[in-house]
Amino acid sequence: CALPIEWSDEDERTRLLLQAVDALIDTADLVGARRALSHADRSADIAGWELRHARIAWQAGEPEESAAAAAAGLAALPGNDPELEIALRIEELRYPIRVEFDGHRAATLARIACDLADATDCRRTQAHASLGSALMLCGDPEWRHHLELAVTTAGPDRHAYFDASNALIAGLMFTDGLRDALAAADRAAREARGSGHHRWYDQFSILEHFLRLLHGECREVGFWGSHFLRPTLRTAVYLAHATAALAFADLGLHRRSRQIIATALDIPIGAAQSGRAPLDWARAEAAWLAGDATDALASVEQCLADAPPTEPTLLLARAVRGWALFDTGSRPEPIDPA
Question: Which of 5, 193, 201, 332 has the most neighbouring CB atoms within 10 Å?
């Protein structure tokens, strides 16, 4: 990232540097984004500087630092700048939604962002997407309305559209909306590929084929996995490997399945940018399909011990535990769908 040395107007310099940070974040160049931000004068725009700080920290897997930066930005807000305030509130919401899983606190904060967004017609897509995600955690059926509204109002803002689509697919996936989720994933994958957003294309392609696996399309998913998995993959890494591994396990190709899982286990969590719950679930189900109920139970326990309570694959892992317990002569426990 080439940075100018002398500027006649420090405010203009900061503004342009913050724009450069935005562009670097959008391309997932976090090293370049941090470097550019370090050259921007924080005192010239504290709230704007902390907004970028929060975004970089979140993408780098530093949620506590991201939350602290969002709080610092909100505390330093200038007079009347609703767009900046909404952007910071959306960053503030990531922690209670994705780390604390505190739906009620998140919904309270998200309604503040939504009210301001609707009143000013600023960032409505992101605000409603955040509210939808928060309501999903609360079990409030209105979650779907807000996420579908976010998808349909995104307009030319592709990143907002992809964020909202990602949340909508996740919600539909485990609320009896598999067909709708598959259609949404396919639509978003096509849009991401057509617009050159490769990281988002990877994300939606993985979700699409995970859903196809749940529909029983094992051959298609196995073929996809053979061509899709690669060392440079940087999104939903464990879910991608889990999906491909289970496709091969369902086809009886257990050696290939174990190879894929072993490869994924060597990927550090920081590089994968996600938790290992999908992989633990895949290990459990692959072991059960291969006839090893004892190994399956061990992997399920690992999944249940490490995963957050709202991890979607937990329900699938519990189902595997039930079958494995049955195979070992033990009585399966009832599965609470909640």
Answer: 201
Contact 254, 229 (CB under 8 A): no
Residue 329 dihedral angles phi and psi, to the nearest 5°: 85, 10
Cα–Cα distance, 215 to 185 (Å, whole number): 14
Q: Show Cβ contacts of residue 207 under 8 Å, excluding neighbours closer than 6 positions.
A: 166, 169, 173, 181, 185, 236, 239
Q: 251 CB contacts (<8 Å, ≥6 apart)?
A: 218, 219, 222
| CB proximity list for 152: less than 8 A, separation 6 or greater | none
| Sign of the four-CA dihedral 329, 333, 334, 338 | negative
pLDDT digits (tens, 9 = 90+) for 110-167: 999 999 999 999 999 999 999 999 999 898 999 999 999 999 988 888 888 999 999 9
Distance (Å, rounded) from C-alpha 254 to C-alpha 95? 38
Residue with tokens 């970089």: 56
Helix/strand number for the chain, H first, E second: 18, 0
